[in-house]
């Protein structure tokens, strides 16, 4: 755990420069606009330890799988989000010495993420080896107003007369650190620089995505624009323009750089070059300040929809805004081909691909804070992948239109290759079905079933039907060889959560069929045809839902995580010593698997979903049994525990778990923030407030609140969009007030 | 399944050249002498599909592990036997055209492995593209008489006058096909050729093993020795000598090549060059025929110890001799640093390393057909690895001298990296302890316990003690998260075989302690000291053996392979269609894991070991339950089933399984003979005859036979070494006769 970020209600502030924290800070100071984004890397040269990261939504590369021992059913490729050209790059040479904080003496240093206005600021002074002191003020943003555009302003002064050489370039020599075979994933299509313009168009190998970047750089001395740029002979992938001049200590130099970032997802390949020219021209008359102001207005609108105000607890306030800010940087929801990578635009880890996190954790945030089309697009993403999910199931031996959605995917194809996850962590199929239910329950857009949803539900129901088998021994249906949400158990039988999800899916599919049949008979006919669906299939489904086996302990009066769970030694986490944690770093996999320790909510994840089927006493019993065994080594665990603790009126634990999820990255609890931020768990943080402390639920088409205010909060207020109305929710010690716009 | 090898009691014969079968034949025609060996590759150039393979015992390389997803506890390296310099190579140029069967018209072709005399013959005629017909007679051997030496004779005639260029070289440009990162594993130390001698000394990277090869090549025209060799400028790693001359159709050319193969396992690195010189000189006066005759005598002696004669069934006769031949090629037992790789000197697969196969399948063959020092050396190999086994256990979180022997090893370090095997297939520890018991039971060398065995048994007992845990639920000790011998089940709880092995080990260790304490009190004191052993440890062992849980089905009245086995759909293998088999090739891993299909004997492996604890009815019940579910996709499965079937008096199944194991490679049942022969399963074949059909057991220090002669066998006879006496066993329809030498 770290604690170097200064508290502030609207800002993330780092003071002083600690090279060992640089990767962590680069993650924390990431910005994006849903279409592209980047880590908080420096504009100027930095040769110290750094994870460079610039990403363009939807642009991926199918890296060849690396595997120790091949198992039939593995995918050959792992599609990963690519490190893309970096438009922010500058090189500053002062009396021949390159400004590089890895080699100079840093006098003071401050990074600020202004979340309210959505931009990144960095101010520092440093003394070069040649003795010259430089003071820099830099800021930049990825425009939320014009989502093809980004801009930066970089000003500096020196304390002695000096010869300056400024180069402004696009860095196209970019690799992924996680490349399996150390490959360069890009081919050069065009690289050009003239006057103050640089253009770089690259194409991904294999997938042939085009990414085009064009920058315009302007130079000001004491706010007066000068222009003596020259294009430099530079490496093929890094077009550059450069200017040389002398300055005096009383002069301030400002470099303003605007960038257009396009990809062939949105612009025809053949037109990218021309559209770059047009777009950069359209911004020519606007200076950095103008562009930033438009961007700020767009963020103001975003905050108006999604802000949460916590009075009396700056630690909690800063954290929730950081989570909301990053969620809005990651996904804007206007493109059904895109989804939410676990790291968003803040790192490479997990390949930037889509996991069940989207449906299980992210959907509620987007459906409550944005237009319903945003959540709908997340669902249509999966609808569009249905045929791939059917192929994926066929690869494993399923048939008849059974669909198994991939564990990890970019374009619908499975990317992951650990048998115990890829083949066995099939509860993801349940989350995808639950997402449809959740969306419809929240938005009342029931027609979605007829348009898209039912086809997906049928494919999933068919999968569960084939995935269970009848146990003569138990005289019940069982589900063998699965991995539940708790990935510290592999290849178990009858994971309660998965069994429960399976029967829920079958029931929901049945209900949905009845409803579509009655309300949209023409659609129903169409769906039966395209899915080759026969009502007789339902008979087997009904048998399964009626005779599914759920592991249960009479002794503890609880559902068991899986068959044989009580054969383990039940040791509470509190008995682990600090130097054993996180166990995933300190223990062998053998020891972990045989232990009782739970990585993330598993039975409790099911109770969270199906809370209404259980009494408060049942919830309490399960919570009391499982929580003490849970090490929360998944970022997705604390949020569910916070919500359940709030429902159980356990204010202290609800609050503690809130801080753990909300400040997961700010405090680097899992010692992995350097790899990027835990974007999908940030949506879980949002849920802890809305579903936990405010206790919001939709029942009978009504929003219901059962609040529990943390003791040290004076008030909690937020807006929530529900069925096209904005509800203002205000909660303090006197109770809850709801105003509807 | 293939069936192209001609039947013959003493020979393996291939007629005609089928390029698609070449890799299979290269495996079948492998030869070796325990110290080095090679596949049946051609002496002359062959550019068609081929797996080149020359191996020197004990020379390995720690190839960097390739892994998809790292798990704590994995080893960083996988030690593998190396493809070593090939001394057999010739290049024959006739009127400028290189003789290469990939490009000529083969007129006739015959390969013969003369098992009686232990050498390989190849005769063929072929028409070159230039129209010349060449007739070749080649033969070679790896000397059993002088195990640093090999020799070949290669004669040919042509049907037209021709210009000939013969090159004789050592091929040191050798790679492993299974190299993880396509690395070249060798460094050149010396490469030289002059007169008719070539010398190549290579050193392995990292491990720094030296391998030195020196060849002497002599040329005869019509049996008259001529010598106009020149050394050629050749590539660094392939020293070569060459001769050019003209020949007439009535002239026959013979190339005789002798080779010395040394490694730094046996000769000091600095002396290798000199020893090569000395040894090649010592053979200078002997021609190929002389050397071959000495070699034949050595094989005659070997056969005298280990032959099995089956009258009336040439198919069975050929097969058992092939198995015995290859076992004797692989391991001679005079070096405790060596062991038996699953492929011996016949291929790269499985890295040439040591598996539990050695103790479970190979030990009985060597202890019955060779001096007891041979089996003892196999045990001392493990004794020497005890400290590594303790380290290996520590890596997984065990302590206090608990030893987990590696699944796959060369020098005692674990090499394998699949968590479900590496961490979980721990029954191997049981086989290693059982090997000690088996050796002592057979040889009466009980002092071995005091000298070496007990230390190993204590390390293993400590492991089991820590590996089980008390189940409150079951009120018994359980063993969670294991993989039994049936690798089609992973991470199961309470695999009966493993639980049984564990308690057997604890009991055997207890007995052994008592015996050593009483009979060798000084040794006992020493062992207590080096092992830091305290008698109090025994209390926990006794609790475990008394209260171990064994899964049992009341319904079927049998032990269950593991917890939950009866939740599976029990479908007999007979219901699988042919095009689904082998399932490991046709099914996804997901489907295999969830099926009831058993890869190899698991519960039955335990019944085989502990047969005397069960009634004939119990054996029958278990056999009838498990055999129909077994797909025998491990080469180690049919032998155990054959033995059990024989014990149960089921002559037909015993015989069918005998053929399946005995002709596994000759008929390529598993479609993988191309990778090399299944050497360790060949020892299993030997057991089917000795322990199955002859029904040999050691009871109360006596050899007991309970024979069952296959219907079509007129007689079965063999010699067996038991406690320094050779017993001649003869079995026909009239019963069994045993004469003691």
Largest sheet of chain A: 10 strands, antiparallel
In CATH terms, the superfamily of the domain at 11-303 in chain A is Glycoside hydrolase, family 65, N-terminal domain
Number of strands of chain A: 30
Fraction of residues in β-strands of chain A? 15-25%
Which fold does the CATH topology of the domain at 11-303 in chain A refer to?
Beta-galactosidase, Chain A, domain 5
SS summary, helix count of chain A: 20
Biggest interface pair, counts: A-B, 50 and 50 residues
**Average pLDDT figure of chain A:** 96
Anisotropy-based shape of chain A: globular
The separation of the N and C termini of chain A measures 42 Å
**Helix/strand structural class of chain A:** alpha+beta
- Helical content of chain A stands at 25-40%
Oligomeric grouping of the chains: homodimer
Radius of gyration of chain A: 27 Å
Spans of at least 5 consecutive residues with low confidence of chain A: none
- The CATH first-level class of the domain at 11-303 in chain A comes to Mainly Beta
Looking at the overall shape, the CATH architecture of the domain at 11-303 in chain A is Distorted Sandwich
């Amino acid at each position: 755990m770290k604690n170097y970020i200064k508290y502030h209600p609207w800002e993330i502030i780092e003071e002083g420069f600690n090279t060992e924290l640089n990767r962590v800070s680069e993650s924390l100071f990431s910005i994006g606009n849903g279409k592209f984004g980047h880590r908080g890397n420096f504009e100027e040269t930095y040769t110290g330890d750094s994870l460079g990261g610039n990403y363009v939504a939807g642009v991926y590369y199918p890296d060849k799988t690396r595997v120790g021992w091949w198992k039939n059913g593995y995918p050959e490729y792992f599609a990963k989000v690519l490190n893309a050209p970096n438009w922010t790059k500058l090189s500053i040479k002062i009396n021949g010495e390159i400004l590089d904080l890895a080699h100079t003496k840093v006098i003071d240093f401050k990074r600020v993420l202004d979340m309210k206005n959505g931009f990144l600021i960095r101010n520092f002074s440093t003394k070069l080896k040649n003795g010259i002191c430089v003071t820099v003020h830099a800021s930049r943003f990825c425009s939320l107003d014009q989502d093809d555009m980004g801009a930066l302003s970089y000003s500096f002064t020196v304390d002695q007369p000096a010869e300056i050489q400024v180069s402004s370039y696009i860095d196209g020599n970019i690799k992924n650190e996680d490349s399996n075979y150390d490959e360069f994933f890009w081919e050069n299509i065009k690289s050009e620089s003239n006057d103050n313009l640089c253009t770089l168009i690259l194409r991904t190998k294999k997938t042939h995505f085009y990414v085009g970047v064009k920058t315009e750089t302007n130079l000001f001395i004491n706010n007066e624009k000068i222009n003596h740029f020259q294009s430099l002979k530079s490496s093929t992938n890094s077009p550059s323009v450069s200017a040389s001049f002398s300055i005096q200590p009383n002069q301030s130099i400002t470099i303003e750089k605007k960038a257009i970032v396009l990809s062939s997802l949105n612009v025809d390949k053949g037109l990218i070059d021309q559209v770059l020219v047009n777009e950069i021209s359209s911004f020519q008359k606007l200076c950095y300040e103008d562009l930033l102001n438009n961007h700020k207005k767009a963020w103001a609108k975003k905050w108006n929809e999604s802000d949460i105000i916590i009075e009396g607890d700056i630690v909690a306030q800063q954290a929730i805004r950081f989570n909301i800010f990053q969620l809005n940087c990651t996904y804007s929801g206007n493109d059904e081909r895109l989804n939410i990578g676990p790291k968003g635009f803040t790192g490479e880890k997990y390949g930037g691909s889509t996991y069940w996190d989207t449906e299980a954790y992210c959907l509620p945030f987007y459906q409550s804070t944005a237009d319903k089309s945003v959540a709908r697009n997340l669902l249509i993403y999966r609808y569009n992948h249905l045929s791939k999910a059917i192929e994926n199931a066929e690869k494993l031996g399923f048939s008849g239109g059974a669909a198994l959605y991939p564990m990890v995917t970019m374009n619908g194809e499975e990317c992951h290759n650990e048998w115990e996850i890829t083949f066995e962590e099939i509860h993801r199929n349940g989350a995808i079905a639950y997402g449809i239910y959740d969306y419809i329950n929240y938005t009342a857009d029931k027609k979605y079933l007829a348009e898209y949803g039912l086809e997906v539900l049928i494919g999933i129901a068919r999968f569960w039907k084939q995935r269970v088998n009848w146990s003569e021994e138990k005289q019940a249906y069982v589900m063998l060889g699965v991995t539940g949400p708790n990935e510290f158990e592999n290849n178990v039988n009858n994971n309660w959560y998965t069994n429960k999800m399976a029967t829920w899916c079958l029931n929901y599919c049945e209900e949905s069929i009845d409803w579509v049949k009655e309300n949209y008979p023409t659609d129903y006919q169409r769906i039966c045809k395209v899915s080759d669906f026969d009502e007789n299939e339902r008979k087997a489904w009904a048998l399964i839902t009626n005779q599914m086996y759920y592991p249960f302990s009479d002794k503890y009066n609880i559902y068991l995580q899986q068959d044989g769970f009580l054969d383990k030694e039940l040791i509470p986490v509190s008995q682990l010593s600090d130097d054993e944690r996180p166990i995933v770093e300190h223990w062998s996999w053998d020891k972990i698997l045989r232990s009782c320790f739970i990585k993330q909510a598993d039975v409790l994840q099911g109770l969270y979903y199906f809370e209404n089927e259980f009494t408060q006493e049942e919830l309490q019993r399960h919570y009391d049994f499982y929580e003490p065994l849970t090490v929360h080594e998944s970022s997705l665990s604390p949020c569910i525990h916070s919500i359940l603790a709030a429902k159980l009126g356990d204010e202290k634990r609800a609050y503690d778990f809130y801080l753990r999820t909300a400040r997961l990255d700010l405090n680097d609890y899992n010692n992995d923030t350097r790899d990027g931020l835990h974007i999908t768990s940030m949506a879980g943080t949002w849920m802890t407030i809305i579903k936990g402390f405010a206790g919001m639920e939709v029942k009978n088409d009504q929003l219901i609140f059962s609040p529990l205010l943390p003791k040290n909060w004076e008030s909690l207020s937020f807006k929530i969009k529900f069925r096209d109305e904005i509800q203002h929710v205000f909660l303090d010690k006197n109770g809850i007030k709801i105003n509807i716009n």
